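Why do we care about 3D structure at all? Because function follows from shape, and shape follows, mostly, from sequence. That is the central idea of this module. The next example makes it concrete: a single protein chain, its amino acid sequence, and then its structure expressed as tokens.
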Amino acid sequence: MTKIHVIVGNETLEAMLDDTQVARDFASLLPLDLTLSDFHATEKVADLPRKLDIEGAPASYTPKAGDITHYAPWGNLAIFYKPFQDSRGLVRLGEFNEPMDALIQDSAFAVRIELAD
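And the structure:
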């Protein structure tokens, strides 16, 4: 597993990426500066610079609060702050190790995601 930091303003949140091909592909993009926006009052989403390699990944995933995922059909990052239904094309990348209150904002906001030291 790979530890990452999600930096929102002056707050740093810790998360872990799974030991999977798609999570390693995501880690290869880091560091990333993204703008997260709200989607369906359930998740924060941002476009990635490219789609991730999902070869060998399950066809669907049922996300829970704190999950970091990739929605393959759109090629975006999706961070869930509420649980959601099983979704075809959704691939888990990892999860937050701690509360993610800094991500619960009404408007779009900048984040930096980087590998932890």
